[in-house]
């Protein structure tokens, strides 16, 4: 298997050696001989760096903030309210009203744009669907416009997107060059990326199409874990839909990698090397939680209960991460069972 190759892992492979294998990458840290403080070698070339994050209070934003601070970056946020808590200076902005003080971007070396209304937080009424779209496109346009006005723009603008861009693609392998899907979330992702595109004229632009983020602190995983806690773990729909997942630590390391790699630009899929079928994922989750998997929730029941939002759990995306691996990035969590086990062990 090539390092950049995505494989279809069937449940029949689950207990075999292929799903248990994981390549361990050991990174060495340079230490100051006198102070013993970790040094990011990037700073020896670029000097101290300042990163501005939108969506910094969200699941990925919080973890990414901690990681950047650990690596020696100064981190600031854009949020609904200005403040200074836990060493994070937050500048207020309001994308809906087009409000952003351009001074918030003064002296910023990199912008990481994660902000957007939660896709599965509320039922998809017409108003909610518009909010999901506007919260991504309006904020992106506002940031790009502000960057265009700066005499010294940031060195990079890294914007989130999602693998929902590909729609329900079945088992067809999706690369960054694959066409956009034809459902609601696909159109949202396409509009989101289009809004970011003009930034290329002013700075280095990277877009990360994020997969299903695995974390016990939020997102989809705690919702999937809940039935298992009551010995009611089950499969949604046929169980054959592909899940392209990523451990939250790997995703955040990927953002930092793109920030520091000046050759990186364009679109990258933020997913682990080994996508799996939904059945395989749920079986692995049950094993990690020491719980059985025995229930099946039919697709029609999900559609009755969730309506169009059922597409978020029944849709299939088999997504390749070959492009990011070709740049030199390596994932620490390659198999779904070991990724889940590591998360559950640390709580």
Task: Please characterize this protein's 3D structure.
There is one protein chain. Mean pLDDT is 88; it is low at 1-39. The chain has helices spanning 17-20, 41-46, 59-70, 126-148, 184-196, 220-229, 248-260, 278-289, 299-306, 311-314, 322-326, 336-346, and strands spanning 30-31, 38-39, 50-54, 74-79, 83-85, 88-94, 99-100, 110-113, 156-162, 173-174, 204-210, 212-214, 233-236, 242-243, 245-247, 266-270, 276-277, 293-297, 318-319. The strands form 6 sheets. Strands 3, 4, 5, 6, 7, 8, 9, 11 and 16 form a 9-stranded mixed beta sheet that branches. A two-stranded antiparallel ribbon has the order 1-2. It has 12 helices and 19 strands. α3 links the parallel β3 (50-54) and β4 (74-79). The chain is globular, with a radius of gyration of 20 Å. It is α/β, with parallel strands linked by helices and 347 residues long. α3 (59-70) crosses α7, α6 (220-229) crosses α8 and α8 (278-289) runs parallel beside α12. Helices cover 35% and strands 21% of the residues. It has one domain: 3-Layer(aba) Sandwich (Rossmann fold).
Q: What features would you highlight for this structure?
A:
19 strands; disordered N terminus; 347 residues; Rossmann fold; alpha/beta; 12 helices; 35% helix; two-stranded antiparallel sheet; single chain; 9-stranded mixed sheet
């Amino acid at each position: 298997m090539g390092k950049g190759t995505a494989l279809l892992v069937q449940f029949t492979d689950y207990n075999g050696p292929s799903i248990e294998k994981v390549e361990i990458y050991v990174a060495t840290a340079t230490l100051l001989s006198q102070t013993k403080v970790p040094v990011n070698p990037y700073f020896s070339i670029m000097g101290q760096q300042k990163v501005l994050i939108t969506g910094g209070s969200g699941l990925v934003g919080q973890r990414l903030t901690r990681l950047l601070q650990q690596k020696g970056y100064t981190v600031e946020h854009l949020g609904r309210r200005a403040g200074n808590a836990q060493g994070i200076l937050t500048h207020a902005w309001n994308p809906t009203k087009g409000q952003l003080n351009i001074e918030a971007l003064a002296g910023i070396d990199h912008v990481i744009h994660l902000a957007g209304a939660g896709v599965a937080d509320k039922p998809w009424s017409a108003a909610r669907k518009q909010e999901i779209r506007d919260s991504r496109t309006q904020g992106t346009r506002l940031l790009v416009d502000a960057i265009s006005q700066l005499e010294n723009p940031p060195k990079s603008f890294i914007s989130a997107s999602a693998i929902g861009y590909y729609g329900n693609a079945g088992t067809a392998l999706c690369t960054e060059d694959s066409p956009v899907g034809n459902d609601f979330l696909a159109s949202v992702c396409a509009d989101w990326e289009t809004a970011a595109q003009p930034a290329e004229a002013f700075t280095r632009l990277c877009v990360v199409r994020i997969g299903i983020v695995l974390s016990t602190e939020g997102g989809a995983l705690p919702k999937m874990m809940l039935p298992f806690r009551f010995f009611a773990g089950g499969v949604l729909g046929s169980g054959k839909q592909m899940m392209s997942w990523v451990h939250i630590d790997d995703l955040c390391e990927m953002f930092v990698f793109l920030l520091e790699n000046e050759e990186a630009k364009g679109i990258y899929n933020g997913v682990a090397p080994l996508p799996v079928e939904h059945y395989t994922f749920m079986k692995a989750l049950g094993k990690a939680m020491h719980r059985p998997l025995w229930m099946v929730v039919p697709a029609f029941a999900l559609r009755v209960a969730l309506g169009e939002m059922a597409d978020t759990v029944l849709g299939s995306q088999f997504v390749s991460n070959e492009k990011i691996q070709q740049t030199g990035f390596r994932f620490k969590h390659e198999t779904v069972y070991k990724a889940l086990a590591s998360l559950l062990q640390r709580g």
